[in-house]
Amino acid sequence: MRASLIQIAVNEDESVNSRRDRVSSLVRDQAGSADLVVLPELWPTGAFAYELFASEAEPLEGPTFEAMSKAARDAGVWLHAGSIPERDPDGPLYNTALVFSPDGELAAAYRKIHRFGFDKGEAVLMSAGRELVTVRLPETVAGVTTCYDLRFPELYRGLVGLGAETLIVSAGWPERRRAHWTLLAQARAVENQAFVLACGSAGTHAGVPQAGHSVVVDPWGEVLGEAGAGEEVLRVEFDPGRVGETREQFPALKDRLLGLDPPRR
């Protein structure tokens, strides 16, 4: 399976509409060279541009939805279109990832469960999603996750329980914690015996330099490809069949012990 992770640079001098057009062209450029394309988190606004979340929030089937649907159809690819600030009809904002099939149909939408910021930023401006989301691709079942989710292994265990063999992470990860980004991507791959496709962003979002370094990791934790710090397209070919082989050769997942009793006092 051929994957293109498009590590988009967010420049504050570029309008959301201009970036939407530019990213659509980047997706179309993957026609013939990729089966799956992945974009970063909140690339229309920048993941740390909190002041834009409300003003640029869209309904689910808004302008970014329409642009990405058309780009996926034009390129003939499965497209994880990163995420958008979504405004629900009832009012709340969500950080919502969109996945499109090669015919431009919406295959999945995932509202980010773990919001970053503790007592500020995304954590207070956006509502939390409640559902784990997987999508069946022709060669693999993909689990859909977003950025800060990467720090919560129980979410990924849940996705594996739903059949996930490939774990997609769309992120706007800060440069100052880049070491955590690579480490956690490898950890999620090893512990779940799954491929991890982690697409970050470049540039600076509201004064926060981005880590870049999008990465693809195999079920043994080996890095198959890694981007640099700037805008680029990371292209990696991987064999989803290796997940089943790995889980059979080293059946660690069978030894999971769930629902343990609390310690006796």
TrEMBL record:
Keywords tagged on the record: Hydrolase
InterPro entries: C-N_Hydrolase, C-N_Hydrolase_sf, UPF0012_CS
Superkingdom of origin: Bacteria
CN hydrolase domain sequence ranges: 1-240
Gene3D superfamilies with a match to the protein in the record: Carbon-nitrogen hydrolase (3.60.110.10)
MF GO annotations: hydrolase activity
Key word Hydrolase present: yes
SUPFAM superfamilies: Carbon-nitrogen hydrolase (SSF56317)
PROSITE patterns (alphabetical): CN_HYDROLASE (PS50263), UPF0012 (PS01227)
Family label: Belongs to the carbon-nitrogen hydrolase superfamily. NIT1/NIT2 family.
Name recorded for this polypeptide: Carbon-nitrogen family hydrolase
